[in-house]
Please model this.
Amino acid sequence: MNTPAIFTTQALLVILFAELCAGIVHWFEDAYIREDTPLLGKYVGRPNVIHHHLPRYMTRNNWLQSSWDLLLISVVIVLVAGALGCLTWHVWLFAAISANANEFHKWTHRTRKENGRIITFLQHIRLLQTPQHHAMHHTNPKNVRYCVVTNFLNPVLDRAHFWAALEWLLARTVGLRRRPDTSVPEHGPAPAWLNELRHPVPAGPVATSSHTGDQELLGMHY
Model:
């Protein structure tokens, strides 16, 4: 029998699991996909490179532009679960959180005014990830805090060196090694094509880019 306590616990576990899975996708994209990666470079690698050099650039995207890749994965999960006869509310909740992970991510780069009162309030009470928490992901060497829905998972995963362990495992088993992130100074220079994008995104506090010294709008609230 599902009591409110059991239902709430299950829902929280599903949300955290969805955040973890979306975080793994985020980590893999950041660590291994660049603009010259076959098939995925144009559609996944290039936006990721832009985001690490110009973090607030993603706030220009609409929901579909931000979420199409995770949406496709979530649709596949729902279809498979339906075919197997196990399409429960857990699967729907998992798919909803996973598909919107990049939207939650985008909210950490927007200003309070852009987010509105409800999102800002949910960030303030720590139900949604705060801009201050996510800011560590954009601090060199940019290899932590890949989960973007809440503030809960990242401290645990980072202390356990979860991402480094995954990278070590892939390197040892299939020879896949992390690719240089050109937004980190020692891994530069930045791709020349980024120059055409280097103009401010309106609104938001100004913060200095860690790579170029240009003034980039990060949307972080300090």
Observations:
- The chain has one domain: 10-217.
- The radius of gyration is 18 Å.
- The longest helix spans residues 4-32.
- The first strand starts at residue 206 and ends at 208.
